[in-house]
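Protein 1 of 2
SEQ + STRUCT:
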Amino acid sequence: MDPSLLLSPKGRIARGSFWLGILILVVLNMLLSTIPVLGAAAGLILLWPQIALYMKRLHDFGWSGWLLLLPFSVSALGVGLLIANAGPALGSAKTPEQAQALLLSPAMRTPLIGLEAALAVGFVFLLWVGLTKGDAKANRFGPAPGGRP
């Protein structure tokens, strides 16, 4: 596998390479999440390879990588809404039961709906980018990737 698959946002990649890259990132995130503090920091570092994959995939069917601002901003808004409404209370919960009671309270309906909407937007975007057929010929982002399915 070419390391530029996960490091460079330039050029184009086929659907198969995109899904391989996503699989690698999911496995890395799962492994790193088992390490308390280091895992969170590594998760942030793994945002760049995710951005590179998405940008190259968008380039493959002629779209600008700036379109990534849509799902990322919706996700940031959903997480921000949840943190603004429940962050301090969840942080002060002494037991899992207290945290669960807070999350199930009526005051949390709106922030949780926002978070669910953000997750749905991200999932639909993943499927759209990962399943859309790329341009068969060269476009403004470069030649078509070889061996396209």
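Protein 2 of 2
SEQ + STRUCT:
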Amino acid sequence: MKISGIFEKLGEARFRALEARAVEEACAKKGSVLSLGGGAILKQKSALLVKDSFIVVWLWASADEALRAWKAIPPALSSKGRQGKSRAQPTGCPPAIYAACADIVVGTEGKTANEVADAIMDETAARR
């Protein structure tokens, strides 16, 4: 089922529970890369598991850049009330949570995907 379908049929709370279980399963696998949505580390247990299991990279973008990058508005932001909130906090997760969880912060503003990937590789290589 697509994320939008889970939100629509089961609600955000059920989606977050499923997401937390998927994060837990992924953290048990060694030697992998995990790409998370903006709210995946809202649950403290998930944030701690991710931090203990991976080098955590926060891809930082301004609200305007993040909104431009989305091909469609995430389901959690589809209502007008949440849409307005997205200008200040596009992912739904407070920046302080990302900052506390991140080992590396890579700015994406005005960079190509290859430039961002190179910056991540440089930063993670420096940590080995």
